[in-house]
Design goal:
The chain contains two helices and five strands. A hairpin with a 5-residue loop joins strand 3 and strand 4. The longest helix has 14 residues. It has one domain: Protein of unknown function (DUF1491) (hypothetical protein tt1805, 3-Layer(aba) Sandwich). The chain has a five-stranded mixed β-sheet with strand order 1-5-2-3-4, sandwiched between helices. With about 110 residues, the protein is of the alpha+beta class.
């Protein structure tokens, strides 16, 4: 059964607060549509950057995929991935979090 969808702007506020309470400070790099924008999350660690892309699993639940691949990448590669995604979705939100262990500050099913 599919989950109810939360408005993107509300979800972003929740993620930023969760990050702050966990010491994984974040910021909005690009503000998207407050109601239905897609979301990318950049995780910044000691060894590079990873970009998570929001998606729906086959069962309709929210999931995330590492859009830049399983290994960390440099900033230039991450920026190029974000730029390509922005061409497809101009309403896209882009967040960035400090993340030494390369995990998001919110509960996430990563596929």
């Amino acid at each position: 059964m599919a989950e109810d969808r939360v408005k993107a702007g509300f979800w972003v506020q929740m993620a930023l607060r969760m990050g702050q309470s966990d010491g994984r400070y974040g910021m909005v790099l690009k503000k998207g549509d407050p109601d239905a924008g897609g979301i990318l999350v950049m995780l910044r660690g000691r060894d590079g950057v990873s970009v998570l892309s929001q998606m729906r699993a086959a069962d309709g639940t929210q999931a995330w995929m590492r859009g830049t691949g399983p290994a960390n990448v440099d900033q230039e590669t991450a920026d190029a991935y974000v730029a390509r995604q922005e061409k497809f979705d101009p309403d896209l939100w882009v967040l960035e979090f400090e993340s030494p262990d390369m995990l998001p500050p919110f509960e996430a099913k990563i596929v």
